[in-house]
Amino acid sequence: MTALQTIRSVRQRKSQSSVLAWFERSVPALVLSPSVCVSVIFVYGFVLVTGYLSFTPSTLMPRYALVGLDRYRDLFSNDVWWESVNNLAWFTVPFIIGSAAFGLLLAILMDQRIRYEGALRATFLYPLALSQIVAGTAWQWLFNPTYGLERAVQNFGWSSFRFNWLGNPDLAIFCVVIAAIWQCTGFVASLFLAGLRSVDDEIVKAAQIDGASLPTIYRRIILPVIRPVFFSVTLILAHLAIKTFDIIVVMTAGGPGTATWLPSYFMYTFAFERGRMGIGAASAMMMLAMIVAVLVPLMYLESRATRNAT
Amino acid sequence: MPGLKIRDVYKTFGSNIEVLKGVNLEVEQGQFLILVGNSGCGKSTLLNMIAGLETITRGEIEIGGRVVNDLPPKSRDIAMVFQSYALYPSMTVKENISFGLEIRKVPLAERSTIVARVAEMLQISDLLDRRPRQLSGGQRQRVAMGRALARDPELFLFDEPLSNLDAQLRLEMRAEIKMMHRRLGKTICYVTHDQIEAMTLGDRIAVMKDGVIQHFGSPQELYDSPSTMYVAGFIGSPPMNFISGQLRTAGSGVAIEIDTGLAKSLLKLPFGLTQMQAYIGKNVVLGLRPERITDAMHSSSRFPVQTVEVRVDVVEPTGPDTLITTHLNGKRVVSRIHPGTRPDDASRLSLLFDLSKAVLFDPDKGTRIDAVSAIHQAA
Amino acid sequence: MQHSSLTVRAVLYLALLLFAALFLIPFYLVLVTSFKDVAELRRGNMLSLPETWTVAAWLKAWSAACTGAACNGLRPYFYNSLEMVVPAVLISSVIGAFNGYALAQWHFRGADAIFTLLLLGFFIPYQAILLPAAQFLGYLHLSNTIAGLVLIHVAYGIAFTTMLFRNYYVSVPPDLVKAARVDGAGFFLIFRKIFLPISLPIFTVCIIWQFTQIWNDFLFGAAFSGTTARPVTVGLNNLVNTTEGVKEYNVDMAGAVITALPTLIVYIFGGRYFVRGLTAGAVKG
Q1: CA B132 to CA B237: how far, in whole Å?
Q2: Which CATH superfamily is domain A73-309 in?
Q3: Residue C207 sits in a domain of what CATH number?
Q4: Which residue in the set C4, C125, C130 is minimally distant from A288, CB to CB?
Q5: Do A203 and B72 touch (CB under 8 A)?
Q6: B36 and B115 share a domain?
Q7: How wide is the angle at C-alpha A27 spanned by C-alphas A22 and A28, nearest 5°?
Q8: Looking at the domain assignment, is residue B379 inside a domain?
Q9: Has residue B189 been placed in a domain?
Q10: What is the pLDDT of residue C233?
């Protein structure tokens, strides 16, 4: 072979191998790209489409003319929407407080070096393995005015006991709260327990030697150390609360009347059952805004707490 | 009055894991007691039992004359400094130090005075408003000590407090702890695995192994007259040489036969024949510290020095002296010679053996076989 | 904590027992009610055991109960769920494995951005994508099909599975991968030889968790399936909330147990892995 031919063939091989090398380096990115595409389309793309729809006059079928903030005006002048938002507040606050309090209590109890921890933990976590529909069905039965709790307590002797919260517009939401707390407490307890367990044992010993009693140790030493966990828990619970849908559908179908409508239920009903996509989309965007409004400050506070607590 | 008394203490975990098997010791008030040994020997468990953080399976512990078995930690008048400092992360240094006082409802004015005094003693006055995460390791260690000092207890407990510090800080803190002890005169019980800390800090040292005390005595006792091979090998660096060989008669005394690799010689030992009668002809282990094998003797010793020619295997100049490693009876033996001479490897050297402080051990049991009655052994 | 007196321990265990009872009672009620006959339901105490045990409610819930227009029980929907869950779980898990592997061990520009991109997907309320997703399925002629549901579940499951695998694979020492690359192995070979062999635990966690999530889903099932592809959760809701004559609570409860059974069984046998999935999910906050 001539020198030129040699050089040419070496260059060819090099360019071939550099193409190959480039390809090899790109494999990870290529592997990820379908998922990235899917994410971009299904998550970000669809959110944008929903946002777009919220500015259109779409009803049963989508129409793509833009009509400004009409749908939002419709939304904000809709009493049912505001009732939904109101109900959400009445749901979220007791839900977060109840789940966190019971979860913390349970975690502290389980932190006391008890036996049968595995069995207990299994008992507290199994509701999470159930669909909200199943959980809602069970609690709906429990709260049944004729055959449920009321009858059972009456049979125990308290004959004037009345319990018809499900049928009471002011109290029905609390039935849902109770069912939701029942489902989530085990999970919250797991988070708190993990946090409690991560506390350095020697700090507790030092406090014992300093003479602190057990409640004092929890209150002044341990709980401050696990402040980041409180934020995580609040974040997760708030986020779950806003998304609550299934359990409303099965327990109350939004009733009595609209007493247990939530924004998620509003969106579904208007968009899919009443054929009013535009306003449905607007309500969906409002839900997104709610989540952002809640999560962003919480995440900021959590990162500050994490930095400060250790 | 005894500052701390441990009487016949046993500790079993679960149904069958015996961690402490009959521990006995006693120190006077104001003495510095060291519990030393390798991991697993039970020293930390014993400390936790003194503190009240672990229950006592059997036996009694007395602090300042009171039996404290059934008292919780807060009633024992103790303070403890932990290996990881265990400072309360969510409190400032000031709050950390005064927490114990706060629990005991000491009024605020008095608390502030105490904190200020302690902070000054430990030179951390300008750190009072900081949080633990803003402090260096050495500073955290001082705060931990401050917390203990503020309580002014009857007994101070230290659980390997210097293990997490770097070498230089460790030296500094060691000196400070020693000075503090001298100034305050309180009883201290200190756990460590470092024999240098044990030797330099303690008034009394308990060397522990497998849940029993092998030897309890003053640092010098442990150094010169260790009761077991374990103790002898644990204390002192480089460790005591163990030369095994057969015990022979030598006139009215005894001698041990050694093989230097070049020749066999007989090393006369300062023990009477009648005392050692039982071991004649049997294998024994001779314990001799490296500084007792050297090239020039300064002080006159009670027992005549013997010269042996050995083959030099390793030469390690350390600055103040040079360590020569040779092999006697196949075992490694280290000697300290003056830094001036620098023999080559594999050359021959004449070494002077000062056997006046020699000790003899039973090779199977590891216990001393000379002057047994004078030695305190595990109860 | 050492010095706990006997009374304190007793109170502790009592409190825990009380909690345990509170957690178990609803399910006990469901179970017990499902074995009663309708007459006894009317008469009796919710809490009492059945006077006569009967499986009539179960049979009806399975094959004869009315769920809206049709009266075929939950059986068709149960099979729908099975048909949907198996592919959805497997596909999303496998994709998650490769994604997680790529993100954990192969550093390239944009890896962190991609990670954040996927992570944010967790937080959106699904209401914000329901309408376009329904339309999208329509365009693909996948409305009211099981394949359509599988697509949706895979699309929205990838974020979680990727996170799970990434957090697991990140603990493999990068030097191992470097050595393999120096030896000449490529992306897939390294996965097969080094990562796959250690992946059984994490696959188990992923499969258990995905199975639970997808089987228990209601929103997607309700929004994207008509009668043919309807999953069992939607079927149960219809069963419970269709008022047609006399309400048969025992059938409702039997239906609930039937719906819950697969995930409960997975939970009982794979509980340990379930918990690991929980904490992994919680890490993302």
Answers
A1: 36
A2: MetI-like (1.10.3720.10)
A3: 1.10.3720.10
A4: C125
A5: no
A6: yes
A7: 125
A8: no
A9: yes
A10: 94
- Mark yes or no for CB contact C127/A36 under 8 Å: no
Residues B216 and B282 in one domain: no
Return the pLDDT at B374. Answer: 34
- pLDDT digits over C33-81, tens only? 999 888 887 777 778 888 888 888 899 889 988 887 788 889 999 999 9
The structural domains of chain A, with segments of one domain joined by +, span: 1-53, 73-309
What whole-number distance in Å separates Cα of residue C57 and Cα of residue C40? 13
What is the side-by-side order of every strand in the sheet holding B2-13?
A: B17-28, B2-13, B58-63, B66-67
> Does residue B49 fall inside a structural domain?
yes
Q: How far is B207 from chain A (nearest CA, A)?
A: 25
Q: How many domains does chain B have?
A: 2
pLDDT (mean) for B11-33 = 92
Give the Cα separation of C236 and B338 in Å (integer). Answer: 93
Confirm whether C11 is domain-assigned.
no
Residue of C nearest to B51 (CA): C2
B140 touches chain A (CB under 8 A): no
C218 CA: distance to closest CA in chain B (Å): 44
Which chains neighbour B (Cβ–Cβ under 8 Å, 3 or more pairs)? A, C
Over the stretch C174-229, which tens digit does the pLDDT of each residue have?
888 888 888 888 889 889 888 998 899 899 999 999 999 999 999 999 999 988 89
Beta strands B187-192 and B155-159, pairing class: parallel
CATH of the domain at B10: 3.40.50.300
Residues 6+ apart with CB under 8 A from A268: A245, A280, C127, C130, C219, C222, C223
DSSP SS3 for C199: coil
Q: Are residues B189 and B223 in the same domain?
A: yes
C69 domain-assigned:
no
Cβ distance of B80 and A205 shorter than 8 Å: yes
Instruction: Say yes or no: B249 and B313 in one domain.
Output: yes
pLDDT tens over chain A, length 310 residues: 577 776 776 666 655 667 777 777 788 888 888 988 998 899 999 999 999 988 888 888 878 888 888 888 888 999 999 999 999 999 999 999 999 999 999 999 999 888 888 888 889 999 999 999 999 999 998 888 777 777 777 777 777 777 778 888 888 899 999 999 999 999 999 999 989 998 988 999 999 999 888 889 999 999 998 988 898 899 889 989 999 999 999 998 887 888 899 999 999 999 998 888 889 999 999 999 998 898 888 878 877 777 765 5
> What is the helix, strand, coil percentage profile of chain B, to 5?
30, 35, 35
Q: Tell me, yes or no, whether B88 and B178 share the same domain.
A: yes
Residue C34 located in a structural domain = no
List CB contacts (< 8 A) between A120 and chain C: 16, 20
Boundary-marking domain end, from B167, B199, B234: B234
**Which range is least confidently modeled, A98-102, A241-245, B42-46, B87-91?**
B87-91
Domain span holding position B275:
241-374
Tokens (6 digits) for B205: 């040292």
Whole-number Cα distances in Å, C124 to A231, A289, A303, C176, C196: 19, 10, 21, 37, 32
| Boundary residue ending a domain (B198, B216, B234) | B234
Instruction: Provide the shortest C-alpha distance from residue C203 to chain A (in Å).
Output: 18
* CB nearest to C123's CB, from A39, A264, A291: A291
The DSSP output letter for C49 is P
CATH number at residue B349: 2.40.50.140
Domain residues for C223? 75-283
A3/chain C closest Cα distance in angstroms: 31
Predicted local distance difference test score (pLDDT) of residue B372: 47
Check B99 against A216: CB less than 8 A apart. no
Query: How many C-alpha atoms does C1 have within 13 Å on its Cβ side?
Result: 22
What's the structural domain count of chain C? 1
pTM of the model: 0.81
